Amino acid sequence: MPGFPRYIFLLLLAVPYLLTGCDLLAFQEQQQKMKAFCLVRGSVRPEAPGDGELIVLLFRHKGGLLEQISNWSLVDHFVLEQAGRWELAAKPGTFYLTAFQDLNHDQVIERDEPAIPLDDASKLFHCDSGEIKGDIELVIPQGGRIPVDTPADIPKSKTRPAAEPLNVSLGQVVAVGEVTSLDDPRFSKENAEEGLWRPFDFTWETKSGIFFLAPYDRWKIPVLFVHGMDGTPRDFRFLIEHLDRSRFQPWVTFYASAGHLDNLASYSNQLMLQLKAKYGYRTLFVVAHSMGGLISRQAILNYTDKIHDDLIPLFVSIASPWNGHHAAQVGVDYAPAAIYSWIDLAPGSQFLTRLYYHPGKSERRRLPSNLSHHLIFTFLGSESGDGTVSLESQLRPEAQEEATRLYGISQSHTGVLDDPKTSELLNRLLLDARKSLGPID
Questions:
Q1: d(CA 51, CA 90)
Q2: What is the mean pLDDT of residues 196-214?
Q3: Residue, of 103 and 426, whose pLDDT is higher
Q4: Do 229 and 4 meet the contact criterion of CB atoms below 8 Å apart?
Q5: Helices (H), 223-290
Q6: What's the CA gap between 337 and 53, in Å, rounded?
Q7: Would the CA dihedral through 366, 367, 372, 376 be positive or negative?
Q8: What is the pLDDT of residues 371-402, one digit of tens each?
């Protein structure tokens, strides 16, 4: 959380200012923009078992005959490796839902791939601003087909200009493996701040998602770096520059840190599934700083709950507030429009409870047994924390109990990312985890 002191502690020092502050007023406007979307959710399953991902497609109907291809436009999609739940969001309109089995894993509909046909007018539905269409069950018939000229080419749909937000969805303006560098202007501190106060504008103008720092290489294990609040991929520059690039390929996330952490975790899952469907990678290491550790843990738990595979054997968290932050509670209590992530970071929040316990139960929610979680905590001299997050929060008992090992580094909350000791430790953990996997084929 590089900007945590600047923005959260401002609440402690200047609550009267914040009650009329421009930033929080701007966030209220952003909330209204986000509420303009409609939400569509449900489940999908194939009529008969088969290989290939299940891809749910949301089409906007522009009017006219259903069978006329020019009357349709693809606005969003959801990828699942097996039968399960999906969720999509778009601007209001008239829609049609379909789904197909992607037998050749290219995210493009083919003649021989089972699909739900686009021929039933009774399945058209309208969705208004703020409306939720839920419990929609999709069953993919074995003999069903979609015409190959249907606009269902997912890779091409993502090239549509983001300047047309009324005709697209949030799912179409995110990066899924776009190759760039840490010097990309989008990763500026100014854009990170926009993601905290103006998350809707950030999504359309800056672009969130998972970025590659080099073309995909099937012989190198991906290492996904997840930043914290008000952070950017550049926060990991020192660690990435000292990463063993002969064995590992760095991937970085960039997201609006104002969002609910549950939603950020769910979207991370969806991006990982899309990348897995495209490249077929079988191992992913995760390195997360501060609030990014909370998002990553939730994403890992959600993924393993649904997929039950060994995709992520290593998780390294750095200075994460496992028990939240008291200053976030001040923001929730006194600010005119509490940032969503503040709500989740407030001690005792539902999100923090769900990180370690099943909803409504005292039963623990644990990381998969095959995964090693290495917990790095930070401190400054005799202080009880690193200047931003307390040791009490970093060393929540449940987090300690579940960690494979704990490591203390005497550094500030952000200084730890530029410390050679952190780099040396991280490279050792990555190399040990790689060796334990055996040969990469």
A1: 29
A2: 84
A3: 426
A4: yes
A5: 237-241, 261-279
A6: 40
A7: negative
A8: 999 999 999 987 788 989 999 999 999 999 99
Which of 122-126, 221-225, 299-303, 317-321 bottoms out in mean pLDDT, i.e. has the lowest?
Answer: 122-126
Average of per-residue pLDDT across 289-301 = 97
CA angle 205, 336, 266 (to 5 degrees): 50
User: Given pLDDT bands bounded at 50, 70 and 90, which one contains residue 78?
Assistant: confident
Q: Which CATH number fits domain 38-157: 1.10.150, 1.10.3210, 2.60.40, 3.40.1000?
A: 2.60.40
CA distance linking residue 102 with residue 79, whole number of Å: 10
Residue boundaries of the structural domains of the chain: 4-33+170-437, 38-157
**Closest of 140, 110, 112 to residue 42, by C-alpha:** 140
Given its phi and psi angles, is residue 381 left (phi above 0), alpha (psi -120 to 50 degrees) or beta?
Answer: left
Instruction: Could you list the beta-strand ranges (E) of 170-292.
Output: 174-179, 208-212, 221-226, 248-254, 285-289
- In angstroms, the CA 97 to CA 242 distance is 46
Rounded to whole angstroms, how far apart are CA atoms 219 and 246?
A: 9
| Residue 196 DSSP symbol | H
- Point out which residues pair with 439 in neighbouring strands: none
Q: What single letter denotes the amino acid at residue 50?
A: G
Rg (CA), the chain: 22
CATH topology of domain 4-33+170-437: Rossmann fold (3.40.50)
Q: Mean of the per-residue pLDDT values for the chain?
A: 84
